[in-house]
Amino acid sequence: MRLFDLRLIIAFLFGLYGVVLVVVGLAFTSDADLEKAEGVNINLWAGIAMVVIAVLFAAWAMLRPQFADTEKQPLKEL
After folding, report:
1. pTM of the model
2. 5, 38 contact by CB (below 8 A)
3. What is the DSSP letter of 13?
4. Helices (H), the chain
5. Which of 3, 29, 72, 77 is the most buried (most CB within 10 A)?
6. How many CB atoms lie within 10 A of CB 63?
């Protein structure tokens, strides 16, 4: 597994933003905010969805690693 695999970077960012939204949805949502959103705590639900997406990206990167094929010979110049 490569440290700088794009899927891991995307997973980290989705996870970070998702955790922030879950915290905001649980701790800092007022009744006025819920009234504006017709009773749906959108920060909480969006944060949970983003954390799930982060887990899926991380699992994808772990289960299907991408490696360069080093056994092939380089192309000959024309």
Report:
1. 0.79
2. no
3. H
4. 6-27, 31-36, 42-63
5. 29
6. 7
Type of residue at 68: A
Q: How far apart are CA 15 and CA 48, in angstroms?
A: 9
Burial 25-44 (b: 16+ CB within 10 A, else e): beeeeeeeeeeeeeeebebb
Q: Give the tens place of pLDDT for each residue, 35-66.
A: 999 999 999 999 999 999 999 999 999 898 77
Write out the two tokens for 66: 């991408």
Tokens of 64: 């299907």
* Cβ pair 51, 19 in contact under 8 A: yes
Task: Please give the single-letter amino acid code of residue 11.
Answer: A
Task: Give the CA angle between residues 29, 16, 6 to the nearest 5°.
Answer: 150
Q: Taken in order 52, 58, 28, 43, is the CA torsion positive or negative?
A: negative
